[in-house]
Amino acid sequence: MTVDKKWVEKGYIDEPVADGVDLAKEIRNLCKEKNAVILAHYYTTGDIQQVADFIGDSLALARKAADTKADIIVMCGVHFMAETCKILSPEKTVICPDLNAGCSLADSCKAEDLKKFKEEHPGYKVVSYVNTTAAVKALTDVVVTSGNAKKIVDTFPKDEKLIFGPDYNLGSYINSVTGRNMLLWNGGCHVHERFSAQEIVRLKKEHPGAEVLVHPECKGPVVALADVVGSTAVLLKHAVESDTKEFIVATESGILYEMTNKCPEKTFIPVPPEVSEGSLGCSCNECDYMKMNTLRKIYNALKCEWPTVEVAPEIARDAVKPIERMLELS
Ligand code: 13P
Ligand code: SF4
C-alpha cells in the first residue's frame, strides 16, 4: 500500500477513522490477520497497554523481540526500542507508529562524539545503556538496561577500564553499587532529571508509611531517598510483592497504570518534577516521546505496514553483538 506523501513527511499516519469504530478491536483483528504482535513499554498510555500482546521494561521488550514468531512487530515505545527489535529480528517488519518518538537520553550521545571519546581513551571498554541509537550500540562492547546494569558491569574484572554512557545518573548509581570508577558520559533524560528530592521529602512527611520507588535515571539526591531503585519492571514487581500499601513513585507516570492495575488496593503517589524559575508551574512527569504512540496511529500503521524501522546492515552487524552479549549475561 502506498502511503500519502503528507504522512511520509510527518513520520506517522494519523488518518481519521469513522465515528464508532472500536480501534482496540480493529487493531486486534489486524494483528490476527497479519500475524503481528504489539509490544508496549510501561510508559505508554493505558489504552495502548490494554491492546498490547506484551508490556514490559526495556530488557523484557528486547527479549520478546528476539523470541517472537510473529511476522510483524509493532513497537509501542520509542525509536531506539524499535531499532533494537529490528537488529534482533532483521527478517521481520518492525513498525514504530510514530518515527518522531525519539529519546532525549539517546540524543545526548551522538555516535561521532562517542567515537572521538573512545579514541581519546584507548584501552577502555564501552558499556552503553540500551537508550542509545543503533550507531552508538555499534561502537559498544556490551549493552545494559537499568534492570541488568549492575549484574553486567560486575562481570568485568575489577581493574577493567570502562566508559559508561550515556546516562550520567545511572552511571553514578552503578559506580556506587559496584565500587567502580567508570568514566561517565554526561547525558540525561529530560523527564527523570526533573524529579524533585524536596517534593519526595514533603510527600514522605504526608505519607510516613509509604515506600519510595525510584528509577536510576533520576538525580543522585532523589536516588538517595529511595527504598527501592530499579527499572520499571523492578519497581512494579516490588509494588506487587511488598506488604506496604502506599508508594511514592519517581519515574514516568505511565507506570502508574500497570501498578494500579496489578494492585488496585494500593495507593501510588507520583512525584512532581521541580518547577524551574520562569516555568508556568507545569507538573508534567510524562515522556512526550512515549506519549506519541496512539491507538489511531497504531491502527493506521498496521493497515499500511508503515512506518517501518530499518537499520543499515553494516551498523546492524556491529550493533547486534553487544545486544546479544547483554541477553546472554542477563
Ligand atoms: P526501563 O528499562 O526501566 O523500562 O526504562 C526505560 C526508559 O526509557 C526509562 O526512561
Ligand atoms: Fe528516553 Fe526519558 Fe523518555 Fe525514557 S523517559 S524514553 S529515557 S526521554
Order of helices and strands: HHEHEHEHEHHEHEHEHEHEHEHEHEHH
CATH domain class of the largest domain: Alpha Beta
Q: Provide the number of structural domains.
A: 3
Number of strands: 12
At CATH level 2, the architecture of the largest domain is: 3-Layer(aba) Sandwich
Give the N-to-C terminal Cα separation.
40 Å
- Tell me the name of the CATH homologous superfamily of the largest domain: NadA-like
How does the major sheet shape up?
Answer: 4 strands, parallel
- The number of helical runs is 16
Strand coverage percent: 5-15%
Organism: Prevotella pectinovora
Keywords: 4Fe-4S, Cytoplasm, Iron, Iron-sulfur, Metal-binding, Pyridine nucleotide biosynthesis, Transferase
Function: Catalyzes the condensation of iminoaspartate with dihydroxyacetone phosphate to form quinolinate.
Protein name: Quinolinate synthase
Topology summary:
Blueprint: H1 5-10, H2 23-34, E1 36-41, H3 46-51, E2 54-56, H4 58-67, E3 72-76, H5 79-88, E4 93-95, H6 104-107, H7 111-120, E5 125-129, H8 134-137, E6 142-144, H9 149-153, E7 162-165, H10 168-178, E8 183-184, H11 197-206, E9 211-214, H12 220-223, E10 228-229, H13 232-241, E11 246-250, H14 255-262, E12 267-270, H15 295-304, H16 313-329
Parallel strand pairs: 1-2, 1-3, 3-4, 5-6, 5-7, 7-8, 9-10, 9-11, 11-12
Helix pairs in contact: 2-15, 4-5, 13-14
The structure holds 1,3-dihydroxyacetonephosphate (13P) and iron/sulfur cluster.
